[in-house]
Write a structure and sequence with these properties.
The complex is a heterodimer. By secondary structure, chain A is an alpha/beta fold. Chain A is built from 19 helices and seven strands. Chain A has helices at 16-30, 51-56, 83-88, 90-99, 114-124, 129-161, 168-197, 202-214, 218-239, 249-288, 294-308, 312-325, 335-357, 364-378, 386-391, 393-413, 437-458, 464-467, 469-474; strands spanning 3-9, 34-41, 44-46, 59-64, 78-81, 417-418, 434-435. In chain A, the strands form two sheets. Chain A has a five-stranded mixed beta sheet with strand order 3-2-1-4-5. Chain A is elongated and about 80 Å long. The two termini of chain A are 28 Å apart. Chain B is α/β, with parallel strands linked by helices. Chain B is built from five helices and six strands. Chain B has helices spanning 21-34, 41-54, 111-123, 126-133, 138-151, and strands at residues 12-16, 58-60, 63-64, 67-70, 77-88, 94-104. In chain B, a hairpin with a 2-residue loop joins β2 and β3 (63-64). The chains are: A alpha/beta, B alpha/beta. At the A-B interface, α1 and α3 of A face β4 and α3 of B.
């Protein structure tokens, strides 16, 4: 039988502390879990956990929105969530607690029992797929506000200042938006790392993610950097043993510095360079493709746009298309540019539709993100699809690639073209900017619908636990 | 000490018309004021809303438990409101039952706190919630609450 010890606590301490305790007890008895709850409310500490109960427990569960002293739990597996989750989702909270792989404390101080040491070694090896998913979702959920705020500000800069974002206000919106985008990979990577190895991993994660965005390795680079930083810190904590006098330096100096340098070097030399080289190689390859049929070129650039959502592959296609604009005479339009822009618009629009038609395949937070993703899509901000792609790349990316390829090919077949390098649907209103506008819109609509249908087909239905996963992570 | 002194039928209102959490919290404050249990309804409402802003007090199942410890409270009290229409609570949950708790900042002794804790625990049990929700009179609700002290 699983044994769990828990602490519940809330800020005023007159109601929620006890509701959470009762709800957890009820859920535990239904599931045959042995649970002891200590309440820290306005009455004071009641039913205090004894050292032997703590030692015997598989995991410590803290359901609180106050700061709970955790000194008693060093070396124990621990799961922390809000007091609200304890009340509203007690069964899931218990499940997640039992699956937790987080061990409290930087290290096991000498003088702890052998039993405690045993707990540390057995639990740190039990990283599960569920854990990986949880870290990913933590990163994604912290990144979403930046994508939404940044993306909408960029769209506003076009809406206010036209296609070239002219004027002070438009430029201000543009600066706000691009700052949000500059930060989003850092935050994605930073919070993946934070989820894996706690605060000490945040520095390496943020720095690695920021390098990913400056070396244009894009969101795939940021995912890599987040996991890298998290696990580097995780193992540094395990391997480095300083004399007790110096152990205070571990979380503030030794670990952040060492892990930042390790992750930074890897991102620059091992990941950054190949990504940059990849970008250059693809640009060269695309130039050599100028002889192939229009539709095939449309398929290729379409897939490139969707595969990494603004990463090195998508950027290569984008700049290849932008180069095609430079030779245009007045009044001419570029078909490749049109294909690239359309293919970059379909992923967020398609995913936005998918969250509507296949609700059960998305988490609650993803559905909310879906409500804003279409705005980013029609503004040619492909990044709007990143939260979905980052959360489930193997199912989402194939769908977006196929959808975008179809859009790219259709744009070429329909003989559409545009004369400007960005702006999304905002350029539709500029006379002469788009040729065959009606068919162009049709191509985008078809690709978006195909994306939505494929995403709905590929993705698995969420269990109730998964559907609320990000809410648990967020609290 | 039982919960009898925490609640009386005049602290219960059934089928109130409230559109927002603030409406409901104000109705509760009015009941407390008329019962002579509040010194200053404005201060109390502000404290309750401050607690709401920290995290929503919706606890699921259509129940919310707005509460505060405040100098404005003269006597520990429990107000029960049943709303005619569902209210979209802070955080988005739909709520039709409001169990509002009022505690003085420094209550005499811990007995009241313990009774409130027991009430909070009881709310987790579906049977108790159903009894509260299906009550036909303020007296019936009050009796249900008064039963709690004796149960423990």
């Amino acid at each position: 039988m699983s044994k769990v010890v828990a602490i519940t606590s809330c800020s005023t301490g007159i109601a929620h502390t006890y509701m959470a305790a009762e709800a957890l007890m009820q859920a535990a008895s239904e599931r045959g879990i042995e649970l002891r709850v200590e309440t820290q409310g306005s009455i004071g500490v009641e039913d205090a956990l004894t050292p032997s109960e703590i030692a015997a427990a598989d995991v410590v569960l803290i359901s609180a929105n106050t700061t709970v002293n955790k000194d008693r739990f060093i070396g124990k597996r621990i799961y922390e969530t809000s007091v609200d989750d304890g009340i509203k989702r007690p069964a899931e909270v218990l499940e997640r607690a039992l699956a937790s792989s987080i061990v409290h404390g930087e290290s096991v101080p000498s003088g702890k029992t052998a039993e405690d040491r045993a707990t540390v070694t057995t639990t740190t090896t039990s990283k599960s797929i569920g854990g990986v998913y949880r870290h990913l979702m933590t990163g994604v959920s912290y990144m979403i506000p930046l994508i939404v705020a940044g993306g909408i500000c960029i769209a506003l800069s076009f809406a206010v200042g036209g296609i070239n974002a002219e004027g002070e206000f438009a430029q201000a919106f543009g600066t706000i938006g691009s700052s949000g985008f500059a930060l989003m990979f850092a935050v994605l990577s930073g919070y993946i790392a934070y989820s894996i190895a706690d605060r000490a991993a945040l520095a390496a994660g943020l720095i690695g993610g920021y390098i990913a965005s400056t070396t244009s390795s894009g969101f795939l680079g940021a995912l890599a950097s987040g996991f890298l930083a998290g696990y580097v810190v995780h193992y540094l904590k395990k391997w480095i043993r300083l004399p007790a006098k110096l152990s205070g330096l571990m979380p503030v100096l030794v670990i952040p510095l060492l892990s930042s340098v390790i992750v930074g070097f890897l991102m620059i030399f091992a990941l950054g360079r190949p990504f940059t080289a990849l970008n250059e190689a693809l640009t060269g390859w695309l130039t050599s493709l100028s002889g192939v049929s229009g539709a095939l070129l449309g398929v290729i650039v379409g897939a490139m746009l969707a595969i990494d959502m603004g990463g090195p592959i998508g950027k290569a296609a984008y700049f290849f298309a932008v180069a095609s604009l430079t030779n245009l005479a007045s009044g001419e339009t570029s078909a490749v540019m049109a294909a690239v822009m359309a293919a970059g618009m379909t992923p967020p629009i398609g995913l936005s539709i998918a969250t509507r038609i296949a609700k059960r395949k998305f988490t609650a937070e993803e559905r909310e993100t879906g409500d804003t993703a279409w705005v980013l899509g029609i503004s040619f901000i492909t990044e709007g699809a990143i939260p979905f792609a980052a959360a489930d790349p193997l199912r989402v990316l194939p769908a977006t690639c196929i959808g975008s390829s179809i859009t790219g090919a259709l744009v070429m077949l329909f003989n559409c073209g545009i004369a400007v390098p960005h702006g999304g649907a905002f350029v539709f209103f500029i006379p002469g900017a788009v040729s065959n506008l009606g068919l162009y819109i049709l191509a985008i609509v078809i690709g978006s619908i195909v994306t939505a249908l494929l995403v709905s087909l590929f993705k698995k239905t969420k269990t109730p636990t998964e559907a609320n996963a990000t809410q648990l992570v967020n609290s | 000490m039982t919960i009898a002194s925490l609640n009386t039928p005049d602290l219960v209102a059934l089928d109130i018309s409230a559109k927002t959490p603030e409406d409901a919290i104000r109705i509760a404050a009015d009941l407390l004021m008329s019962a002579g249990r509040l010194a200053d309804p404005e201060v109390y409402v502000r404290e309750v809303l401050k607690r709401e802003s920290e995290t929503s007090t919706s606890v699921g199942f259509g129940f919310a438990t707005p509460h505060a410890r405040s100098n404005a409270v003269l006597q520990p009290s429990v107000v029960v409101l049943r709303s005619a229409e569902v209210i979209r609570w802070h955080g988005g949950d739909l709520v039709d039952m409001i169990v509002q708790l009022a505690m003085p900042d420094s209550p005499d002794g811990k007995e009241h706190l313990r009774v409130l804790a027991n009430l909070a625990r009881r709310l987790i049990h579906q049977e108790f919630r159903e009894q509260l929700r299906s009550a036909t009179s303020t007296r019936e609700v009050s009796n249900l609450l008064n039963g709690i002290g004796a149960l423990q």
